[in-house]
């Protein structure tokens, strides 16, 4: 299962990607926005997708203007590892890092490139020891600064 979320700036690309996911027989759930609303806020959709990804141990794709806002919001959620992807190389890196969520730019990413990114990211790859070591260090940082009293 892949959970999708977008604000207004990523809405059109998300809708295009839904058609791609259907054609490729990927299972997905759209967590919103369900209509274009120029006044919506990306953190709302990032949080909805992050909760689903964590609760179901699945993957997510977030869409906003540049991908950066969604990426920042998603990476604030304890347990989530998200990465902005804009080309095939960043998709391969996100795959190697075993990120939970990728974020895409609705303003700067062409639909065909978004499709390539998603295919690469979802294609199983071996994760080498150095990446496993580095991911562990990132998770250690997250745990060190996690304060449940702040939630």
Automatic annotation (TrEMBL):
GO biological process, one term: pentose-phosphate shunt, non-oxidative branch
GO molecular function terms listed in the Swiss-Prot or TrEMBL record: ribose-5-phosphate isomerase activity
Domain of life: Archaea
UniProt KW keywords: Isomerase
Protein name as catalogued: RpiB/LacA/LacB family sugar-phosphate isomerase
Protein's UniProt keywords contain Endoplasmic reticulum: no
Organism expressing this protein natively: Methanoliparum thermophilum
Pfam family, one: LacAB_rpiB
UniProt keyword Protease present: no
SUPFAM superfamilies, per the entry: Ribose/Galactose isomerase RpiB/AlsB
